[in-house]
């Protein structure tokens, strides 16, 4: 019988250009819902979701960031403490894809060194408006040695898979480092939690 | 007895032994008792391991052997070893790892151990929180030298998990060890806290593997995490919800419980118990076997230590049904009352939350010659409590027995896993099994009549005289308990070694002393009988086979239920993230002017489900939450659900912020971060257009501007101000004005209109008039300055005050202080000023001297003017003290008195 409600806490971050659908991706994952009205995220928002992986219950704390250019310097300060970053572009928006390398540089400069990254090409349900080929997404992902999914928050394609895969990758890394002492991992994750809350203060 | 007191005596000032626990150190060749203390010194923690003689009372009883600093590399893991029989609810086995060492301990089962572990855990978390600052442990150095480490604990490879051999004899410096070793055990046993725990340790130490026919079973081999307190609430919620929805994921399955009770009258086992314990056709799933009068000696009464425990446990283990393998889950004993709890091997993993307790009701209502021992456990999803009681003796004492029952019910308290929950009583369990020598007799019948009825097997008549039946019928005792039909002859009292009724002088009336009762749903009795073939005691053993419906978890539906609960809790948690809505997230201030107060209102409305604390927080690497020209009022606060608050965003450009805005080096642009505690952050954009002003512009720039400043393109102003900073001494002033025209306008206005103005520079102007004057200077409209003389005078002062570089530039300030007393040198300094500054200085002083000529009217004197103007013209680049202030005034006076004589 399970006694604990979760073993680990992972902090994840969604970044990418404004309008690519970060908030919708999060909303689909956390509430399994989709909202067509676009409300630009002005700030930093988060939701939690508990998932089970490899017999461990993991609480994901997912931070959604403002994508607008004018906020970039501020949002980068939230990278610290994230264990995983989902970098999202819009397959119907070439500019959002071109900016991927800029975002990757941002991660390099501001995030933890060992952060798990993942590239998402969102809005893949809108095939007729596609301007970014899937192969291009795959290419840039493989160049940077990160995972890639095409997703649709609207049609619920690959959303859960993306989050779970990212969480699994983090879990693998974490258990690799701390091995047998799950207690250590636990404490570290709760410390991270405190740290990222500290940042907000 | 709190042994941390003894440890405390060995420590230095400022070091505190927070908690101590006596435990067993696992060595290759057995175990040794140690004392573990958690010691704190200014937020650093270490575990001190002591050898000790008897129960440590003073510092001289303990000898420090090892110190385990609690740092990052420290970990403590609860383990159950594969090679040892895992016993649920047994002692806590710990593996402590630090640096490259690994030590294993066994800590006594119970809440004190849990408290100890949670303290250790907290200490460790403290270390983690302070990451990356690592503890230094300087205070431990002195101990490490003196720590007596007999053949110190050698580091061992992590894989072995055991400590290499240590020579006991090597601990030579512990005084009088031989003696101590002996007294050790007896005083140990006598210690009040948890006497039964000691007996358990013994059981373990002495080859239980042989006793219990089971060797491979492990309940949980993997390291178990210690429960972390900080997420307790969620845990409790989940447990609560699971309990509410129990029916959704459990079903009832029957299990056979074999219950036995035997008053052995102090005897040692002489015959096989198989005929009692192995009498069922099928092997039962669980055994709960109770004994009374295990040992009648004085020693056991005073020291609670008896060899009989081993002997009878061995006899029981060997007497269990031979068709199944059983694991001893728990042994609990109070003096002569002992309860053994076995389960079939395959059920062991479904036993959890095991607790054992004892209650004495004997002499003085407390001693252990009478009373009860009990275990409680969770089997699958049902909570079961088994009580073995030995109630007061003698025929007439049935009221006393009733009282004993009530005392046991009220005083038997089981600790819960969660220490914040109140302890469980017997009656809180859905299934209670009660067995023992309840000592109720047969009333109102002569001994011969009783024996006659027994001969005729008229148990019904006899039973009507049974005190227990009568008391239960009256609901005086065992309310809601059931007992099966009694179809066996009384089990008391026989001549030892025979089936003959008591032939002693007392010639006791036979009685059904030994009984088995139950309380709960879904319980069917399969048999209830005595076992006449056993003749060791003056009692006969009794057994009852119960089929009990136990709530078993359907893993699939459990998982589904749990997932549902987790999902709804996630939802709840997400909904409880503090949330507010903002009236606006972008604010634009158009045409902001120098010293113009502007404000906009931001309304926060708490549209979330919880109260929230909000605060504007600093951005990374910035000194304040906003630019110096902005303030948010209030900048932090508390907002109840549904409430709103208005925050004034106030903008004000003063002399310190104006220069960079005038020059275009800075814009009115900022992003505020409004942080909700434990919630989201909002970014609030502030922007504005600033209308350049002569106020806050440099003399140099103004001299270049022949048109009003607001008629100039911003680009020109920026270029000019850049020139001003780079080429201060540039002679390229052909085209430039001698002095800023704005200064001329104000001074000329005063010269012409206010020379005789009473209290000039002494009375304040009007704010509204100042604004008109400012606009006039900056736009050139209207042609003449508006406002009263006092307002113009104040504008002049403000103008001088707002100059980014004062009339006497900062670089000359020090020189001024050095020569203030010599008029000549003061003038020398002025002659060295940049041309436009020199012009301004001379122009202003000339004007002031003119004013002094009219001092009869305007009541000005040298002192007043020096005080007012020195502070504006000769400013310190840093903070100015009173002495310096006087010097600047004296400096300036030279220029005011010059031509008056």
TrEMBL record, chain A:
SUPFAM superfamilies linked: P-loop containing nucleoside triphosphate hydrolases
Family membership noted in the UniProt record: Belongs to the small GTPase superfamily. Rab family.
Name used for this protein in its record: small monomeric GTPase
Reactions catalysed according to its record: GTP + H2O = GDP + phosphate + H(+)
Species whose genome carries this gene: Pygocentrus nattereri
PROSITE patterns per the UniProt record, alphabetical: RAB, RAS, RHO
EC numbers, comma separated: 3.6.5.2
GO biological process: protein transport
GO CC terms, sorted: endosome membrane; phagocytic vesicle membrane
Highest taxon listed in the record's lineage: Eukaryota
Keyword Transmembrane assigned: no
Cofactor: Mg(2+)
CDD domains linked to this entry: Rab8_Rab10_Rab13_like
Taxonomic placement: Eukaryota, Metazoa, Chordata, Craniata, Vertebrata
MF annotations from Gene Ontology: G protein activity; GTP binding
Membrane topology: Lipid-anchor
From TrEMBL, chain B:
Molecular function GO terms recorded: inositol-1,4,5-trisphosphate 5-phosphatase activity; phosphatidylinositol-4,5-bisphosphate 5-phosphatase activity
GO cellular component: cytosol; early endosome membrane; phagocytic vesicle membrane
Domain of life: Eukaryota
InterPro entries in UniProt: Endo/exonu/phosph_ase_sf, Ig-like_fold, INPP5B_PH_dom, IP5, IPPc, OCRL-1_2_ASH, OCRL1/INPP5B_INPP5c, Rho_GTPase_activation_prot
Cross-referenced Pfam families: Exo_endo_phos2 (PF22669), INPP5B_PH (PF16776), OCRL-like_ASH (PF21310), RhoGAP (PF00620)
PANTHER family linked to this entry: INOSITOL 5-PHOSPHATASE, TYPE II INOSITOL 1,4,5-TRISPHOSPHATE 5-PHOSPHATASE
Protein's recorded name: phosphoinositide 5-phosphatase
